[in-house]
Amino acid sequence: MDSQVPARTVTFVFPHSWEAEILPKRPLIKPLRCYTYPREAEEVERGALEVMVQPAGNALKFLATFALGFADPAVPTGLWSCPNPDELCAVAGGYAYIVNTLDPAELTHLALRPVLEVGSLPDHNLLVFVGHQALLAWGANGEAWQTRRLSSEGVRLTEICGNELYGFGWDLRTNREIPFIVDLRTGETSQLPSDSVR
């Protein structure tokens, strides 16, 4: 495998109405419908994630080209199903995109950049994105919440207990990790006492 090409993940935990395939490169013969995300991207083909999508029903398949965020193997690239069965999540080098497969012109380019991890939480009907300093959750009706800043640089998640997500954020002032809890229903956060370990 080319060391410059990040590993590509396919995680379809949520039920979905579409089918999608990551292509090794842009096809020579393109389908009738082609979409580039974001539209204003320059030189989007360089390192882009090319995906062939077959929407539900009799809709024509389309080629989705997602601009690469960072050419760094530490950030994710791949496809995820979403809590809304008609939506597709694509992440290209840490840039996360949510596309309505029934109307591919409808796109959300998540503001959390780069995304460092993506987690599917079917029990909470959320797709959770982890950034350097905060978390963002996507639900069946769009963005569910975004946390406040949890870290100076680096978030580490440890476990979920009921509706609570536990983790640590790095604090530059004290040069140590500070434990936190996120309420998965609201995105509200609280700090644990520093001697708490889960």
Describe the protein.
The chain is an all-beta fold. It has a domain at 8-116. The protein has strands at residues 8-11, 19-23, 33-37, 49-54, 62-66, 77-81, 87-92, 95-100, 107-109, 117-121, 126-130, 135-139, 142-146, 155-161, 164-171, 176-183, 189-191. A hairpin with a 2-residue loop joins strand 12 and strand 13 (142-146). The model is unreliable at 1-5 (pLDDT under 50).
Q: How would you sum up this structure in a few lines?
A:
The chain has a domain at 8-116. By secondary structure, it is mainly beta.
Question: Can you give the mean pLDDT?
Answer: 91
**Uncertain regions: pLDDT < 50 for 5+ in a row?**
1-5
Envelope shape: globular
Going by helix content, strand content and strand pairing, the class is: mainly beta
What is the end-to-end distance?
38 Å
The H-and-E topology, N to C, reads as EEEEEEEEEEEEEEEEE
What's the total count of β strands?
A: 17
Biggest pleated sheet = 5 strands, mixed
Percentage of residues in helical conformation:
under 10%
Share in β-strands: over 45%
Count of helix runs: 0
Walk across the major sheet and give the strand order: 1-6-7-8-9
